[in-house]
Amino acid sequence: MTAPAPAGVLYGLIADATVWPLFFPPCVHVEQLDFDGTRERLRMWALAGDRISSWVSRRRLDVGQRRVEFRQELTSAPVESMTGVWTVRPFGDVSRVTLEHAFTVAGDAPADVAWVERVTRANSRTQLDRLAWLAERWTRLDDLTVTFEDTVRVKAPAELILDFLHRTADWPEDLADTRPLTVLEDTPGVQVLTLDGRSATGTEAVRISFPGAGRIVHKHTRTSGPLAAYTGEWSVEPDESGVNVTVRHNVLLGDDAVGPGESAARRACDELGRAGRRVLDHAARHASGVVRVL
């Protein structure tokens, strides 16, 4: 892929995997497990065809050569091994990005080999296409990315709040515009949601729970309107006197969200904020019987 952006900008987007869920459509969530400035371990969740796959990768970052090598340490079936490299090279006024993969499949079953190749090619093409889209707008990325959050303090057990946030299918009727139509949880802690499309967030989402850390992260995999991408997180932080419950929103705006479309983008973000605050209010009701915001 060639793109009209400095090689250093493109390398930075590739090297910082924590931004991938917002910037790259197939990527659902990334947890950075270790990082020493050059080598890192990542736990990643991504769309793989009609599945949610997860694996652990080791990466070596070479900023001088603008090169990122990766190797899956813990794979997801049917993948037996997966290695690869990103390289970024300047060519005059543009930069060229190359993404290579090499893989093996357990048992070498032809159907499994074909599936892994098809998914890897499709996701790689989608990542490179989005990288080109970002490169064309690299001078405006700060304007196109929006992050905001709300926090309430509740005097109630953290476990009850997390329980409410996790059981989205049981949310009350007055959260109908936020409550999903269907919830599938084939893998414990990983939910695939179908939404009714009435809100600004689109029609499909994936949520991943980390109950030991008091967190639930989400990505809306089919967005609509002025939102090019939307991710977020619920976090519950208890202390001696209560619990801080925070909802965080991360938004990547599309081209129609600037200029004449700016008011639509502002309305979409306002809608996300209001919906998040309503859920916070109901979580407090569920956990304590009455809202006790301190």
From TrEMBL:
Which InterPro entries does the annotation name? COQ10_START (IPR005031), Polyketide_cyclase/dehydratase (IPR019587), START-like_dom_sf (IPR023393)
Span of the signal peptide: none
Q: What is this protein called?
A: SRPBCC family protein
User: Pfam families given for it?
Assistant: Polyketide_cyc (PF03364), Polyketide_cyc2 (PF10604)
Q: What is the species listed in this Swiss-Prot or TrEMBL entry? A: Streptomyces lancefieldiae
* Gene3D superfamilies cross-referenced by the UniProt entry: 3.30.530.20
Query: Where is each Coenzyme Q-binding protein COQ10 START domain found?
Result: 4-131
